[in-house]
Amino acid sequence: MKCIYCGTPLSGIDYCTGCGADVSLQKQIIRISNRLYNEGLEKASIRDLSGAIVCLRRSLKFNKENIAARNLLGLVYFETGEVVSALCEWVISKNMNVPGNVADIYIEKLQANKNKLDIINQTIRKYNQALVYCHQDNEDMAVIQLKKVLVQNPKLIKGYHLLSLLYLKRQEYEKARKLLKKAARIDATNTTTLRYLREVEEMTGVGTSLEDKKKRYAKEKVNKLTGTTTYMSGNETIIQPATFRDSSTVATFLNIFLGLLLGGAIVWFLVVPSTKQSIYQDANQQITDANSKMASQAAQVSGLNKEIEDYKAKVEEAQKTMDAADTKAQSYEKILEAANKYLAEDQAGAAQSLGEVDADSMTGAGKDLYDTLNTGLKTYMYSTFTNAADTAYVAGDYATAIENYQKAVEADPDQEYALYFLGHAYYNSGDTANANKTFKEYMEKFPGSERASEVQTYISDAATGAAGGTTGGTAGQGIMPNGDTGVTAGQDGNGTNAGTDTGAPAGDGAAGTDGSGMGTGTGDGTGGEYQGNGSDADGTGDGMDYTAG
User: Fold this and answer.
1) In residue terms, where are the TPR repeats (predicted)?
2) What sections of 113-156 are H helices per DSSP?
């Protein structure tokens, strides 16, 4: 023992002879540490390993340089199967550089046996894997791993506890009792072991005896005259003769027969079970390896499927890029074709080629060329698309009319005519949603036009679905291109697609392309047809039949 202040060896007095410091408290602390070490040693000697660990840890808290306590703590850890904790304590003890430290011997013996170290590492990995299986509710695999752990390290208390806990969960109480008794032989007072045993006793109603049943024989004396041996077996006195003599041939053959029977019984009850157990272990190991291999292959298949999906996505993306590039290339070809025709004053061909161009794919100089051609051909394209749309509208081909009216609106958005009849084409085709949207766009662009009030009426009808309603409503209006709009003369219709008008709607003239005459006509407002007549600057013509909605 040395002074903590100056390092001078201490004597029996309470003062340091080197520096004069009061070392009574230091000596008291060291005495407490030594007393706790002695208590730990006593507990370890009666296999109270848990109590020994507690005492030895407290001893080291008072004096961390207590080499004996640290070495003993390592031995206790080693006895409970905690080899890593034992090595930690011995390495710390070795680094204190105390001559004659037995920790050096412990470490050398452990490191000299490489096979033992490999087994220790395997048991640690398998125990950790068993814990993972328990968290995953894979109890069967956990039991298999823990059995292997206890075969390789039969002193691992934690392994006994975890395996017995799994047995308790599966209500295999006798297996749990057997394991806990083995754990109790290693550490007699481990609280976890005793708690699990109490649970087993409560569930089975049978107590557990932890004492080994051993026959104790006390030899009393040997009688040299008679050659007999007298000894005690419990409370009984047994007198055994020194030799047995029987010279009969029958007895000899009987002994041989009994020996053969005994040998066969030994083989049957000892050798055969161990062989079966070895076969079962090999089979279980093969099953475990097969399951591991299947899991690995499943993971590989999943990874390959993921790669395939990624490649498919890349292929689809590349295909979209190629399609966009093809569309862009075709658009550039068409715009160049339109430019050549425009320079050759072939406006019809230029307009047709320009109409096939995807404007959204144009960028940079291509977009500028498209805008220039579109501006130059705007009037011609508007007139062409409008005429085609009017023809389709009059013929009742509203799908074609809608397509051409849309192109006309795109060609010249400032013209109300195409937008107005686009809304009516939607309306007559039954697409009230797009009709309502188009009429609203018309009201936003041309709120002060002559047709604004009429369009407002169609917005209301398209929004509510009341035009030609099933419970009565406004009689249908005859709207035809290149003429004036007829206005409904009467309302208050009743019944399904029927009504009674007080007047008839005026018809629309559609005889001429540039008609400007006022149309006249008659209608009954009951969902029937009406005939309109119109006249223009060049002649007269009959209007198309139109069904009132």
Assistant:
1) 157-190, 382-415, 416-449
2) 114-135, 139-152
Domain for residue 337, yes or no? Answer: no
Q: How many CB atoms lie within 10 A of CB 104?
A: 13
- Asked if residue 295 belongs to a domain, the reply is no
> Rounded distance, CA 121 to CA 428, Å?
84
Identify whether the C-beta of residue 439 lies closer than 8 Å to the C-beta of residue 412.
Answer: no
Q: What is the pTM of this model?
A: 0.38
Distance CA 496, CA 468 (A): 8
| CB of 188 closer than 8 Å to CB of 46 | yes
Q: Do 121 and 83 share a domain, yes or no?
A: no
Contact 546, 478 (CB under 8 A): yes
Which domain-ending residue is among 182, 204, 226?
204
CA-CA-CA-CA dihedral for 71, 73, 74, 80, to nearest 10: 150
Domain holding 165, by residue range, is 117-204
Instruction: Pick the last residue of a domain from 112, 132, 151.
Output: 112
Binned at pLDDT 50, 70 and 90, residue 489 comes out as very low
Do residues 240 and 200 both lie within one domain?
A: no
Nearest to 285 by CA among 126, 472, 440: 126
Tokens of 20: 């004069």
Rounded Cα–Cα distance for residues 481 and 405 (Å): 12
Does residue 354 form part of some domain? no
Half-sphere exposure of 97 (CA within 13 A, CB side): 0
pLDDT tops 60 at residue 250? yes
**What is the SS3 assignment for 532-545?**
EEEECCCCEEECCC
The DSSP element (H or E) to which 228 belongs, if any, is strand 228-233
Q: Are residues 134 and 220 in the same domain?
A: no
Same domain, yes or no: 137 and 194:
yes
Residues 449, 517 within the same domain: yes
**Residue 543 and residue 533 in contact, taking contact as beta carbons nearer than 8 Å:** yes
Count of domains observed in the chain: 4
CA distance to 462, 492, 521, 522, per residue, from 501 (Å): 21, 7, 14, 11
Q: Is residue 273 part of a domain?
A: no
Q: What percent of the chain has pLDDT over 90?
A: 24
> Mind listing the pLDDT tens digit for each residue in 161-214?
999 999 999 999 999 999 999 998 988 888 999 999 999 988 888 777 776 544
- Would you put residue 47 in left (φ > 0), alpha (ψ -120 to 50) or beta? left
Looking at residue 232, what is its pLDDT? 52
217 DSSP β-pair partners: 233
pLDDT tens figures, 338-364: 788 778 767 777 777 777 777 777 778
Selection from 162, 164, 170 nearest residue 208 by Cα: 164
Q: Where are the alpha helices (DSSP H) in 63-98?
A: 67-79, 83-94
